[in-house]
Amino acid sequence: MSLLTAFQAKKTLPDHYRTMSIGEKEARIRAIKQALGSRLLILGHHYQRDEVIQFADITGDSLQLAQEAAATKNAEFILFCGVHFMAETADILSTPSQKVILPDLRAGCSMADMATAAQTERAWNALQQQFGDTIIPLTYVNSTAEIKAFCGLNGGATVTSSNAKKMVEWALKEKQRILFLPDQHLGRNTAYDLGVSLKEMAIWDPIKEELETETPMDKIKVILWKGHCSVHEKFTVEQIKEFRQTSPETKIIVHPECTHEVVQQADYNGSTHFIIETLKKADSGSKWAVGTEMNLVNRLAKEHSDKEIVSLNPTMCPCLTMNRIDLDHLCWSLEQLEAGVLHHPICVKKETATYALLALNRMLERA
Predict the structure, then answer these.
(1) Reduced to 3 states, what is the DSSP secondary structure of residue 32?
(2) For residues 64 and 69, what is the distance between their CA atoms, to the nearest angstrom?
(3) CA angle 343, 33, 333 (to 5 degrees)
(4) Are 225 and 139 in contact (CB under 8 A)?
């Protein structure tokens, strides 16, 4: 197959995909998948809508999927049904001959966008002036390749919600202080669980370019980037109180991207994998209110119909950017690929990928 460049592909979804029936689109996707065989690998993030997940060869969290992409050497095309930073990580970890495709370039991540390379460089310079060479940067994998590269270049590493405690412990042995990007809540909840008091944490505001703290500078151990997940921040202590009053037997389980107050009030907190496994192993007839993305909550409720599983926030919407990957865009990407057009490829610059890989490998070596 001779592939055209990404710029030769149309940027806007053609109208006819809106008029095709669901059955037609599903049939086209199945036919192209069968034709491409092992040359194609479709990855689906847990937060994806069911209409897309049904076609995923592998379902998982962002780093797990990127690692699966790297391990599947015979896949020439990796179609990532997730968001931009996830596809970047897959490109970094896969081989140069493999092509990573994101069905819709608008599928970004508001959290990742809260820390740009320019903002991070300015923050680093200011913090170096204040604290000297006493800081090591850590970034959640929910960040751009440029932020991962910044951490790799400056001796730091990436973290996931599953291994954040292990990586924060490692970082505090390396340097006196941590700069934790871009999710303040995961950073705060992790450090607190390891015995770092809230008074020993400060917040860097990238908009005001200032450190928010009432603590003496020499007492600060963790500097949290002022970023957050727009989905997980919508879970509140009031929602927990409502369940405690109306359904006291319901267990509350939340993701550590939720606020510190919510995590402290919940019965359990942990990564997406932790939530999935906890509900899978839960007793039949048990009741659960889950503080994470709605597509996943609904899927878990269907998979474990012997249990009562609902969202902690009954008015919660699915992750809007993740949901930009729909049946239409999946079908369009595959038809373009069938026609010889590499549609919306994700290609991380070589230098950026090199330093980002350093940060990823420092984590993977300790996983």
Answers:
(1) helix
(2) 9
(3) 20
(4) no
Residue 6: the pLDDT is 43
Q: Which two tokens stand for residue 298?
A: 């609904």
- Which pLDDT tens digit goes with each residue over 126-156? 999 999 999 999 999 999 999 999 999 999 9
Distance of alpha carbon 42 from alpha carbon 295, whole angstroms:
18
pLDDT category, 31, cuts 50, 70, 90? very high
The b-or-e profile of 99-113 (16+ CB within 10 A means b, else e) is bbbbbbeebbbebbe
Question: Domains plus CATH for the chain?
Answer: 6-108+322-347 (3.40.50.10800), 112-229 (3.40.50), 232-311 (3.40.50.10800)
Cα distance between the two ends of the chain: 38
Q: Which residues pair with 159 in a beta bridge?
A: 140
Helix, strand, coil % (nearest 5) of the chain? 45, 15, 35
**Phi/psi at 112 (5° precision):** -60, -35
Pairing type for strands 135-140 and 177-181 reads parallel
Write out the two tokens for 112. 């990742």
